[in-house]
Specification:
Layout (H helix, E strand, L loop, with lengths): L2 E6 L4 E5 L4 E8 L2 E3 L7 E6 L2 E4 L5 E7 L5 E8 L4 E9 L5 E10 L5 E9 L10 E6 L4 E6 L2 E6 L6 E6 L2 H4 L16 E4 L1 E11 L4 E11 L2 H12 L3 H24 L12 H20 L14 H4 L11 H13 L3 H11 L45 H17 L2 H21 L26 H6 L8 E2 L6 E4 H21 L5 H18 L1 E2 L4 E2 L2 E5 L4 E5 L8 H4 L8 H14 L8 E2 L17 E2 H13 L3 H14 L9 E2 L6 E2 L5 H18 L1
Antiparallel strand pairs: 1-2, 2-3, 3-4, 5-6, 5-11, 7-8, 8-9, 9-10, 10-18, 11-17, 12-13, 12-16, 13-14, 14-18, 15-17, 19-20, 20-23, 21-22, 23-24, 25-26, 27-28
Length: about 700
């Protein structure tokens, strides 16, 4: 099942798939916890005595959003009965409440008996041990709970039946209606590994439309459920639907007007009304989608799609990566979202180590006293037992650059003053020192773990690059290879330039030339060590093998080489950049009818076709569009922008990658970074055209 709708408010996030089943349910933080980790909440029907599942065999399924809003608008047409069922799904903007308003219209000439079922398969705190599901009479709701996580389930109208069960009950169907009668076996409580089901029963006359609703209320105790039910019954769920729709329309239009100077017309980007309209709609959908992936505590989550768990995996993308977060917040800063930027830095600064760097990734909870470091595959020692930092340095560099972007955009000197000692200067100091300077202490045997059969006298990176002024080794942009990468060098260069400018803004004139000099030293090191004079292009990275004491200059093409011009290290008209970007385009555009741009040559991640260099990635395709925009060739950029538009799905969701033969999204969906790069690309195009 593929995510079709993402609905959220910063505390509650609900994913709905292309069969209208609820697949992910995050509360109280976006990305933490998913109370449907390995399960899904099911919607199905019984129509004139026959069960009907939401699939293309039983229904014509049309799932979409209300335009410019975070409200689902979906239609199911039952093939055998001329019954049309319409769903309006939304999360209330200021309450942790998910509502599914629905209406059933009979377009037949005779009465139709309809049962509607919602089976609830919550596993509180992400594991299905010690849960309870119970009918809670004061709230007239079924409640699933464990510890201080409560989800109330019901309707402001009259339910027909309900039941609670263990998952193994009823021939392992759990809370499920009788196959013969469609009735639910009444059971008011169950505990352990549990589920529940509520049902509605209607006799719909010809030409008649009946309406009802279903809700999920999140809270920390029974009183929260009771209070929320009262709120729901006061304005009506139809009124809340209108309020939610209008809220998100205003939210996105307020920023669109600032950027495009229009609320009603599609901006002329390429002079092609059909394409311009599609671009503008996807631009707005991307902003809304990005917002659903941001916790109200500030964390920007990479992707909240539990498909890996449901397929038997043991981890997710539901973490804050400082790389993704900084890249995305810079796009939002450019679009004018100061309130999101303020909250982001309030969260991010708590995670920085005293030494001034970020770890790999983090949980989103901003209230924890600890770092809340997420799972990682970055070790503290290399394969020979030498100590190393488990970091990718670009994550720190990008956050320092984002600080400068925030100040440059909003002119908030108080912001710089507030974060200077605890956030800004520690990053500046780390990035300036974590380089191959002559006075940087070499790794000693005291940092070495005995028992490894490498027999090296000293660490190989120091031997090869002492005095080069390049950044010391860390993991690359893709988190897989440790070495000195061009992308990391470019981000550190930009961050040190930003450090110089921030020092000037803060009144530390003594730091201004120091950090500017550090940046230029890195640029010189890149020209000396990462430019291949034989081919005339830059290399993606230098990989060093501690077990052989050999350094390999990686000639594989990598889309991240765009960073050399994007972050200002080299002019876009530099012949070396032109040659490098030509090589990126020649070697990474996927040679299939689908096209798009792979992230690097011979990419193994989710690889579909061994004959192709890799799958196309949305972000990499958009990077090439950005290059052609900045190079003054918007017609070339149009090809790659149109590719992104064409391969977003019907509801505007962009995945991490696309299938190289079908074009369908693969890996997680939506990927927040994909949507951010689309917004970034269109912002750059608009500025260039202006």
């Amino acid at each position: 099942m593929s995510t079709a709708l993402v609905l959220g408010n910063g505390n509650l996030l609900v994913n709905v798939d292309d069969r209208l089943q609820v697949t992910d349910f995050y509360f109280p933080h976006i990305g933490q916890e998913n109370h449907l980790g390995t399960f899904q909440n099911k919607l199905f029907f019984r129509i004139n005595g026959e069960f009907a599942m939401v699939n293309h065999h039983d229904f014509e399924v049309d799932i979409n959003y209300e335009q410019n809003s975070l409200v689902g608008k979906s239609i199911l047409k039952h093939k055998n009965s001329q019954l049309e069922i319409r769903f309006m799904d939304f999360v209330v903007p200021n309450e942790p409440i998910f509502i599914r308003n629905f209406e059933i219209e009979n377009k037949n000439s005779h009465d139709i008996e309809v049962y509607v079922y919602f089976q609830n398969n919550f596993a509180m705190y992400e594991y299905d041990i010690g849960d309870t599901t119970v009918w809670y009479q004061p709230g007239k709701s079924i409640v699933h709970y464990k510890k201080d996580r409560y989800i109330g389930i019901g309707s402001t109208d009259k339910l027909y039946q309900f039941t609670c069960a263990a998952r193994t009950d009823n021939h392992n169907r759990g809370a499920y209606p009788s196959l013969e009668s469609g009735e639910l076996y009444f059971n008011p409580i169950s505990n352990g590994s549990v589920n529940s089901c509520v049902s509605y029963k209607f006799n719909v006359k010809p030409g008649e439309t009946v309406k009802s609703n279903y809700y999920n209320i999140c809270g920390r105790n029974l009183e929260d459920v009771t209070s929320a039910v009262k709120v729901l019954r006061s304005p009506s769920t139809e009124s809340l639907y209108g309020t939610t729709k209008n809220y998100w329309e205003h939210w996105v239009e307020s920023k669109i007007d600032n950027i495009f100077d229009t609320k009603k017309q599609y901006p002329s980007l390429f002079g092609e009304s059909s394409l311009d309209k599609k671009i503008f709609n996807l631009y707005k959908r991307s902003l809304l989608t990005i917002r659903t992936q941001i916790d109200n505590g500030g964390a920007i989550i990479a992707a909240n799609d539990g498909r890996y768990l449901k397929e038997g995996g043991k981890d997710t993308y539901s973490y804050y990566w400082p790389r993704d977060g900084a890249s995305i917040i810079m796009t939002l800063i450019d679009a004018g979202f100061q309130e999101l930027s303020d909250t982001y830095f309030e969260y991010a600064h708590k995670l920085l180590t005293p030494e001034g760097y970020f770890f790999h990734k983090y949980y989103p909870d901003p209230t924890s006293d600890s770092y809340m470091v997420g799972s990682s595959w970055h070790p503290w020692v290399d394969k020979c037992g030498y100590a190393q930092l488990p970091i990718q340095e670009d994550e720190t560099a990008l956050n320092l650059l984002a600080v400068w972007n925030h100040y440059e955009k909003f002119g908030d000197l108080e912001f710089v003053n507030h974060y200077w000692d605890s956030f800004i200067f520690p990053m500046m100091n780390f990035l300036g020192n974590y380089r191959y300077t002559m006075d940087y202490p070499a790794d000693s045997m005291e940092d070495h773990i005995s028992g490894f059969n490498c027999n090296l006298e000293k660490h190989e990176f120091n031997a090869h690059f002492a005095g080069s002024k390049l950044p010391r080794p860390s993991y690359d942009l893709w988190e897989e290879r440790r070495g000195i990468s061009s992308y990391t060098c470019a981000t550190v260069y930009a961050a040190l330039k930003a450090a110089s400018r921030l020092s000037e803004a803060f009144g530390r004139e003594d730091f201004v030339p120091v950090f500017a000099k550090f940046a230029e030293e890195i640029k010189s090191g890149v020209e000396k060590h990462l430019f291949d004079k034989d081919t005339g292009i830059f290399l993606s990275r230098i990989n060093c093998n501690p077990s052989t004491n050999q350094c390999e200059f990686d000639a594989q093409m990598d889309a991240s080489l765009y960073g050399l011009w994007y972050y200002g290290m080299f002019d876009i008209n530099d012949p070396r950049i032109k040659a490098t970007m030509k090589a990126v385009e020649d070697r990474l555009v996927v040679k299939s009818p689908i096209g798009g741009v792979a992230r690097r040559e011979n990419d193994f991640y989710h690889k579909i076709d061994p004959e192709l260099t890799g799958n196309p990635w949305f972000i990499c395709t958009l990077w090439l569009a950005q290059y052609w925009i900045e190079a003054g060739k918007p017609e070339k950029a149009k090809e790659y922008i149109a590719w992104a538009v064409d391969h977003a799905d019907s509801t505007g969701m962009m995945a991490e990658q696309a299938h190289p033969h079908t074009g369908h999204g693969i890996s997680v969906k939506p990927l927040t970074w994909s949507h951010a790069e689309f917004v970034n690309t269109i912002n750059r195009l608009k500025k260039k055209l202006s």
